[in-house]
Amino acid sequence: MMEFALFRLPDGRAWLGEGPFTALASAPAGGGAFYVNDFDLNDPQPWKVPARLHAITAESLGPAIHLNGSTTPRIHWAKPATEWFKMAFRRIRREVLSKRIEKMVPVLTETGTLISGSPLKLLEAVMNAPANMWGYAHVTEKGGFLGATPELLFKSQGQSLETMALAGTAKPGQQDAFLTDVKEIEEHEIVVRYLAGQLQGLGTVEREPRTLCQTAGLVHFQSAIRATLNQATDPAELVPLLHPTPAVGCLPRDEAALTKLREYRQQLQVPGFFGAPFGFIEQDGTAHVVVSIRGICWEGDTISLPSGCGIVGGSAFDHEWRELRLKREAVLRLLALHS
């Protein structure tokens, strides 16, 4: 199979689309298409209609993508360099403290070399991810990316829309301190305010109380947000309205801040898939678009494992550096990946 895309819902339903893909600017009326783009939304035709679409299960995955005989990849990881990231952290924190920006998310990428096995074998772990995660993958001959994310950008059908703020991170077992952590709460509420503000003009918005989301060895604050739209809106218009949220981007989300964010991502060599929207639209018109975090990408024998952290006024370098490591470790656990 030269090119394919995969999307798995938290309820276990999943679809595999085989290329060649037909690219469209808007979601097709009959559904059955994947949304694939990079973080900067550079693709003007991100809806990809596969030549063949299959509903799949964890059991039928192997035969569908010819995994027979593939082994779990062994990867030699290089130690991530601190210098560039430390410089980005200092600069962003200075901007935050001088009130020029409220929040920005730099990303650190750990790279490794594939020693043996196939990254495609990791799709088994994606299909078996916990029930509060969405699985995603896009693979071509040259490489690809895959992962399981706890973060929904939006789910829409007709005039109903669901989204979530997922920001603030801790290790399980540290809930008590986390629940009252001013910095983590501030980071979370910034995302809530942003999402509610973006949707305000489209209809009625309701926010549910902040709760804890425990997934793949991490704990996050999560707030569900629902909107009843004044009219049915094309998912293609909702993506640029909501992405990037301050959970993976910056606030304010004006051109100056976004330009800075892009510069940092370039300097830090962040893979384009990380933090980007990825999704699938069902035949009944239900669109699911998620934020591609908790994943890896590869090109040839080079594997990349990115993790990001939100910098706000209360951020301290050591704390954020530790959080980045926790997130990468969570991905390795989630994908049952051993170095």
Explain how this protein is built:
The model has no long low-confidence stretch (mean pLDDT 93). The strands form three sheets. Strands 3, 4, 5, 12, 13, 14, 15, 16, 18 and 19 form a ten-stranded antiparallel beta sheet that branches. This protein has a nine-stranded antiparallel beta sheet with strand order 6-2-1-10-11-20-21-9-7. It is globular, with a radius of gyration of 19 Å. The longest helix has 19 residues, at 182-200. It is of the alpha+beta class. Helices cover 27% and strands 35% of the residues. It contains eight helices and 21 strands. The protein has helices at residues 58-64, 83-97, 123-127, 175-179, 182-200, 235-242, 255-267, 317-334, and strands at residues 4-8, 14-18, 22-24, 33-36, 47-49, 52-56, 74-77, 103-104, 107-116, 134-139, 143-149, 152-157, 160-170, 203-207, 211-215, 218-229, 250-251, 277-281, 287-291, 295-299, 302-308. β20 and β21 form a beta hairpin.
